[in-house]
Amino acid sequence: MTNTSKPTLLVLAAGIGSRYGGLKQLDQLGPSGETIIDYSIYDAIRCGFGKVVFIIRKQIEQEFISFFGTRYGDAIEVDYVFQEIDKLPAGFNVPAERTKPWGTGHAVLMAKDKIKEAFAVINADDFYGKGAFEALAAFFSETAHQSKEYALAGYRIANTLSEHGGVSRGVCECNDEGYLMTVTEIKNIHKTHKLIAYPDEKNQLVFLPSETFVSMNTWGFFPDIFEDFEKMFIEFLQKNQNDPKAEFYIPTVADTLIQSGKARFKVLDIDEQWFGVTFPEDRPTVVNKLIELTQKGIYPTRLW
Length: 304
Known about the structure:
This protein is α/β, with parallel strands linked by helices. Helix content is 26%, strand content 26%.
């Protein structure tokens, strides 16, 4: 079932889950054993997406594919690509000290030969809500493919926090027309005295308005973006190949394109409550929220 007019969902699922104590991607949290990925794919299908591509690592291939391989029947086409540290452009080698993957930008680049249509990028362990997929599908249908205009699903920061610790978010600055100007990764954002704040370099709290847009790593791209990812990853390696901790991130590509004037990113206003399993303590909250959404009739008791 291939329909190139339908957008593709690219799922970043290569994490090993060392902090979580297992593969978050396979944790069955829904009333009938659904994973968070299941809800994203269910929403994507009903918003018109035609294919899902999972980015995984060889280390989890058998466990992952045995779980998801036939899960969706003929409801959506399923494919896989692998993100490994040795998947590099010609002329580059993996430094001996390198043990971790090269980041989310490298992950997206791995799908270059699999995707020829508009595509959305999401994390495997985040619940985004149907509104995100509706907004992305609408953006794709309304935007010319060669316009160098892409999208970022923007969530209000108040809707993206964990009750169990600080979170990292890409804090967005937009212009008056709703286009992204900058996205800055900020760590340890948390609630304090009913306000939202993070510590700066001097450990002084900086407060953020609850309506601030943040990136949840949910992007809308057209396939011409792969050329930019490829070019910038080579430039990244030329500068950082020998740094064992350096990572190539999706926002780096977006920021470079924005600052050079080569592309624009429309920030889509997503009125949804995010939740996810950032910490093991988040798990009961997620389970309860999925039960609540099911009881409200937003999702069926069994998705598949």
